[in-house]
Amino acid sequence: MTVRTFSGPSSSFHATVIVPGDKSLSHRGLILAAMARGASRLRGLGAGSDLAATISCLTRFGISVDGDRVESGGIGSWGEPGRLECANSGTTMRLLAGAASGRPFVTVLDGDASLRRRPMRRLVDPLAALGAHLEVTGDGTAPITVRGGTLHGAAVTIGIASAQVRSAVALAALQAAERAVIDSPPGFRDHTERWLAALGLGAWQSATAFAIDPGAVPPLDLEVPGDTSSAAFLWAAAGLGGSEVTTPGVSLNPGRTGLLAVLAGMGATVAATETGQVLGDPVGTVTVRGPVRHGMQVDGPLAVRSLDELPLVGLLGAIAEGETVVSGAGELRGKETDRITSTVALVRALGGDAEESADGFRVMGSGLRPGKFEAAGDHRLAMAAAVAATVAGTVEVVGIEAAAVSWPDFADTLERSWSSR
């Protein structure tokens, strides 16, 4: 494992940073382009090993991906891929399970040891409602065996606010014989629904129910917005350090901006300005000026909207006045690590006061000090530990290479931001 020591800035900083292309949208764009007949252009695709996994899997179906150009004969031309290796990418695995459900062959989706621990049974019943046949292990984990075939329309109710499950069902439903309707609790990222509506392949029936109209996906030609989840680490650095960070051209999908609501609720200054849209999905510029001042309660839909960023909320809570309590975030236990336990461990490793609960954690604002943290292969915890050096001083991150899953140049970008004036 690679060890990197981060020494935080000696004073406040003012940085403007262009973040990599959005990972969630890059996955969806690649798979939809692979389902389309003809050539698609996806400029500004995200970087990292998760997207490399999706590209590798698509080539096994017979799709050509060359830089920002994707060429396909359409979903009907996909060939039998055999066993696909999804590495550490849960998005790759779940979305391709849906897409492969309508193909007349068997597809096996597997991954590394970390991915094999993550929950996959949640896909089985929603896709079965469309006539798909999926098999997972007795523990409800990968490998997933998809026995594809003819699909039909249905009303599909998903018990959790999961964008990945909703998207998997939507990708399968595009290949069904009749219209399907997906519904779930609120709080999910609705990228897929917005894009399908813009492409004329679906429409909202209510605030949470979306109807998918089967049909051919047209080729795509778009610019992928900046990654909100990557920008979040820089926003948190501003919130921790009493500094200012601006990130132009990032996705402003309401399901992605929970951390901005948390930062504002904790007393930081937040400005988000929409500058355009990509297939009905808002894009804009965000400026965050810290510091955060007081703790807050993060639960319900806000916890869902900020799920991937909750480790950062733990750090913010450690320097804010009073108590910060996160609840309703049990999904964190099924990530690359148990992120409830890992977040508490990170705060404690840096001298903070934190304790976990069944579905969240509590942090007292007692400050952060220099320390050392083992990321255990979790890219978001590795990146969060580096960000903590903004106020902790010196933080030694063991396993910083995990950041390459989503942002290979993150460490250098963070340190350049600290030196901006």
What is the mean predicted local confidence, pLDDT?
96
Percent strand: 25-35%
How many angstroms separate the termini? 33 Å
Largest sheet, strands/sense/barrel: 4 strands, mixed
CATH architecture of the largest domain: Alpha-beta prism
Shape: globular
Given helix and strand content, the structural type is: alpha/beta
Describe this structure in words.
There is one protein chain. The protein folds into two domains: 3-21 and 225-418, Enolpyruvate transferase domain (UDP-n-acetylglucosamine1-carboxyvinyl-transferase, Chain, Alpha-beta prism), CATH 3.65.10; 23-223, Enolpyruvate transferase domain (UDP-n-acetylglucosamine1-carboxyvinyl-transferase, Chain, Alpha-beta prism). It has 13 helices and 23 strands. α10 packs parallel to α11 and α12 (379-392) runs parallel beside α13 (410-418). The two termini are 33 Å apart. A hairpin with a 2-residue loop joins β4 (64-66) and β5 (69-73). It has helices at residues 23-35, 49-60, 90-100, 124-128, 163-173, 191-198, 228-241, 258-265, 300-305, 310-319, 339-349, 379-392, 410-418; strands spanning 3-7, 14-16, 37-43, 64-66, 69-73, 82-85, 106-110, 133-135, 144-147, 155-157, 180-183, 202-204, 210-212, 221-223, 244-251, 269-278, 281-289, 297-298, 323-326, 353-357, 360-364, 371-374, 394-398. The mean pLDDT is 96. With 421 residues, it is of the alpha/beta class. The strands form six sheets. Strands 2-15-17-16 form a four-stranded mixed beta sheet. It has a four-stranded mixed beta sheet with strand order 4-5-3-14. A four-stranded mixed beta sheet has the order 6-7-9-8.
